């Protein structure tokens, strides 16, 4: 299939914007006949008339208006390309963020809030497992990956992992669940909702070995949003950072146990060196360090 000739498209866009063939020819220092030929070839290619002549002016047809809309977007994308590679910052591109699927949605929002408030950049957010997200980071599909562990290189790629936060892991659920004399009693007598996220899981396993208890786990969950829903609906007590149920804790619908578990969940922003890094990323990471 024959591709579109963008040389033809450029001349069409110039005439469509000017609205007059003669003035366009004079401005571009080219003959009117040469421009007419270019536009005629474009019309033949797409099978539609692009202009109606009204007096001495050219008026876009319906097909012409559609073609101009696409042409504007095509050339706008070209401007964005030049802006990115020249690092002029005149055109923004989306910040592409990958987040571990078990990562709290509240934490993700907390991380992105300064960029959302700024309003100058769009955000493309993708969730998944660590392996796939790091592959996307390596192939430049993503700009940054949010995770809870420092990644290990298995392919000779060395990631930069900046710790951007650390949250104490606690027990959160219905207030009546918290009426226990000791932490051991709570872990053995109350239904527990345990995330499969490895840092929390490892900390929890170390805790129950230390206490010598058999915990009453009713759900192993690989999504923090589901952990939040189950705890909010009174199914059990969530083993999680408070940020996961921040809204419910503030509202008083979920209580936090006074017993300390003694471990934390760290959060990392993982990046790779880029010749053309996203202009918003460095500032976003610096803001997290200042919190």
Automatic annotation (TrEMBL):
Residues 4-61 form the HTH lysR-type domain. Belongs to the LysR transcriptional regulatory family. GO terms for molecular function: DNA-binding transcription factor activity; transcription cis-regulatory region binding. PANTHER family: HTH-TYPE TRANSCRIPTIONAL ACTIVATOR BAUR, HTH-TYPE TRANSCRIPTIONAL REGULATOR. The keyword Transcription applies. InterPro entries: LysR_HTH_N, LysR_subst-bd, WH-like_DNA-bd_sf, WH_DNA-bd_sf. Keywords: DNA-binding, Transcription, Transcription regulation. It comes from the Bacteria. Gene3D superfamilies: Periplasmic binding protein-like II, Winged helix-like DNA-binding domain superfamily/Winged helix DNA-binding domain. The keyword DNA-binding applies. This is LysR family transcriptional regulator. It holds the Pfam family LysR_substrate.
């Amino acid at each position: 299939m024959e591709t579109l000739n963008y040389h033809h498209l450029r001349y069409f866009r110039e005439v469509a914007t000017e609205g007059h063939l003669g003035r366009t020819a004079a401005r571009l220092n080219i003959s009117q006949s040469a421009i007419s030929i270019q536009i005629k070839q474009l019309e033949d290619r797409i099978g539609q008339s692009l202009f109606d002549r009204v007096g001495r002016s050219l008026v876009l047809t319906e097909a012409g208006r559609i073609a101009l809309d696409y042409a504007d977007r095509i050339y706008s994308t070209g401007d964005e390309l030049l802006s990115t590679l020249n690092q002029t910052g005149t055109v923004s591109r989306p910040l592409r963020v990958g987040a571990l699927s078990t990562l709290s949605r509240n934490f993700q929002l907390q991380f992105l809030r300064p960029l959302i408030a700024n309003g100058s950049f769009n955000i493309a957010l993708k969730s998944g497992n660590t392996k796939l997200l790091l592959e996307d980071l390596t192939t430049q599909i993503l700009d940054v990956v949010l995770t809870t562990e420092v990644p290990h290189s298995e392919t000779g790629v060395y990631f930069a992992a900046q710790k951007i936060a650390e949250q104490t892991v606690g027990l959160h659920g219905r207030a009546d669940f918290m009426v226990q004399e000791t932490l051991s009693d709570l872990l053995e007598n109350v239904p527990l909702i345990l995330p499969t996220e490895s840092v929390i899981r490892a900390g929890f396993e170390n805790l129950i070995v230390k206490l010598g208890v058999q915990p009453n786990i009713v759900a192993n969950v690989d999504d923090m949003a589901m952990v939040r829903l189950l705890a909010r609906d009174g199914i059990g007590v969530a083993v999680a950072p408070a940020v996961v149920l921040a809204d419910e804790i503030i509202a008083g619908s979920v209580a936090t146990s006074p017993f300390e578990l003694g471990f934390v969940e760290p959060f990392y922003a993982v990046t790779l060196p880029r010749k053309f890094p996203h202009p918003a990323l460095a500032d976003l990471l610096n803001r997290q360090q200042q919190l």
